[in-house]
Amino acid sequence: MEPLVFQGRLKGKIVPARGPPRFGWEPIFEHEGETLAEMEHGKKNALSHRYQALYKFQQWLAQGDNRSLYFESK
């Protein structure tokens, strides 16, 4: 069985650090003129590659066509 992959992308660029050093690379990753550290929390989460991937997974689950979802218990 082929694995299902749900992914997201956030386009941006690496810049000199700006904003509070909250988490990892947020102060150096800029998206549309603002680093992730400078963004309001809700805006940053809505842009998140993790959020995008999880949203795609949720959409797939909601379709009901998840017969290929397989869990192996040990």
TrEMBL record:
Top-level taxon in the UniProt lineage: Eukaryota
Record-level GO cellular component terms: cytoplasm
GO molecular function ontology, one term from the record: nucleoside triphosphate diphosphatase activity
Keyword tags: Hydrolase
GO biological process terms, semicolon-separated: nucleoside triphosphate catabolic process
Pfam families registered for this protein in UniProt: Ham1p_like
Family of the protein in this entry: Belongs to the HAM1 NTPase family.
Protein name per its UniProtKB record: Inosine triphosphate pyrophosphatase
